[in-house]
Specification:
This protein is α/β, with parallel strands linked by helices. It contains 9 helices and 4 strands; from the N terminus they run βαβαβαβαααααα. The chain has helices spanning 24-41, 56-69, 91-96, 122-127, 131-137, 158-169, 179-185, 191-197, 199-211, and strands at 13-17, 49-52, 74-80, 115-118. Helix 1 (24-41) runs parallel beside helix 7 and helix 8 (191-197) packs across helix 9.
């Protein structure tokens, strides 16, 4: 008798990601982009379910609701830090000191390793892999020299990063950078390069590797 191998069971892991707005197209785009990135992080492993959840506070609320209604899932929260993170060992302390996040509370029985940051925004991860810009925009009109030169991408201010991306891409056929471009770029970038430039990205990737089993 031939015994057929059973397909690997997907991990009961949900990742609630900030962004995607309220339109189906935007949500599909960010889900596809982050799924591609995580596939490169989790080679040979089962992959989590990516749940685009809109605005920052909306994402927190969706994650908090999932903790209550689907406790059988391991729900992770991935949001922009919106600024420098001085309390790297305590993500909840960071949000408690931000005016807009002061009402965020760590639920009981939830450890610190459920909350993760893109520091200071998702776009900082792109700076770690400059070749991704060429792959997406083409080499002819994208101005790499307009991007911040520092390798410690978490120390690039949000406003500086936004201005640099818009300036670098404004003459490309795709036009100046906008969020829909970011949803595509997130799926192109090399996670190994992000690890080298962003300790908080490394923390998130290591968590995925710890909770997503081998196939």
């Amino acid at each position: 008798m031939v015994v057929r191998a059973q397909p690997a069971k997907s991990p009961d892991v949900w990742v609630f990601v900030e962004g995607g707005g309220n339109s189906r197209d935007e949500q599909s785009a960010i889900k596809y982009g982050f799924a591609n990135l995580m596939a490169k992080v989790l080679v040979g492993r089962a992959r989590p379910t990516v749940i685009p959840s809109g605005g920052r506070d909306q994402t927190y609320r969706a994650w908090e609701r999932a903790l209550r209604t689907t406790p059988d899932k391991l729900s992770l929260l991935l949001v922009d830090s919106e600024g420098p993170v001085s309390h790297s060992d305590d993500p909840w302390r960071h949000v408690s000191t931000r005016g807009g996040d002061a009402h965020w509370k760590k639920p009981e029985s939830v450890h610190d390793d459920r909350l993760f940051f893109m520091v200071q925004t998702m776009e900082a991860w792109f700076i770690a892999d400059r070749q991704a810009f060429i792959a997406y925009y083409g080499s002819k009109d994208f101005q790499l020299g307009a991007l911040p030169s520092r390798s410690d991408v978490e120390n690039i201010a949000k406003k500086e990063l936004a201005t640099a991306l818009e300036h670098a891409s404004r003459h490309t056929t795709k036009g100046a950078y906008r969020k829909s471009h970011g949803f595509a770029l997130i799926g192109i970038i090399d996670p190994a390069k992000i690890r080298a430039a962003s300790p908080h990205a490394t923390r998130f990737f290591d968590k995925l590797l710890a909770v997503c089993p081998e196939r």
